[in-house]
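Notes from the 1:1 (GR / supervisor)

We went over the backlog. Supervisor wanted to see one worked example end to end before approving the batch request, so GR pasted a single chain during the call. The sequence is below; no edits were made to it. Supervisor asked that the structure be written out right there so they could see what the output format looks like.
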Amino acid sequence: MKLVIQHLSKTYPNGVKAIDDLSLEISPGMFGLLGPNGAGKSTLMRIMATMQQPDAGTVSFGEIDILKDAMSLRKLLGYLPQDFGVYPDATAEELLHYLARLKGIFLKKDRHQVVQNVLELTNLYEVRGNHVSGYSGGMKQRFGIAQLLLNNPKLVIVDEPTAGLDPVERSRFLNVLRAVGTESAVIFSTHIVEDVKDLCTRMAIMNGGRILHTSKPSLAISELEGKIWRVVIAEPDLDRYKSKYHLLSSGYNEDNTLTLRIWSTERPGEEFVNVVPNLEDVYFAALSPSILT
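Structure output shown during the call:
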């Protein structure tokens, strides 16, 4: 089933326009939603997860009108918000049994099988008797995946799930999410470009409540071939280069010089070297309104 968003808008009472006439279609598979903090990603996630109402627009999943029939969507939904709480004195197994009952799995035999399956899939079976409140950050995120899988969801929404995870836990978490994405539509919201590169077959870049660019990651990268240039400069020259060229990103070198990545359709100067583009270049180019629009 396809998720279809049309002309969605949301403005908060303080005047912040979180979603601005946004339209987007998402098919089954792994879909990455990239954007800086404050881009409106979490508001969009909450609306899609029936946790918040927009001011205008429509959202449908297959034949379900999400805004008018939230309960039908929730039967098919798995949602992992940016922050979720756990009961401090409950083990992972106890908490999953409780959540499974809330999701309508009342027969003990069925519930036991489902809980065991999700614990094994998320590599938490050996620590099922431990309190979730004592889990590491990565283990808590994997528990979040376990709880959303209890009802075999067709739509999975995860919001900034790898923030704060160490590289090992991040890899474990992404492997679990990748397995989920083989059978469901998974919307993966993040500001970490590498997560989308490693995981998603489709992506959108969002800022200011709007979708700036949609594509396959590999296609978006190929569209920048021949347009990304590298130059090494002294730090005092940075402002001059920023004013003269389309600067995408910069980074310090060991000798305190700066390596700049510049977008240009032709060689900007003798000191510039053409380099292979990457998804981070796509991201920063999309955030520059004069490049990918």
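Supervisor's comment: The longest strand covers residues 17-26.
Batch request approved.
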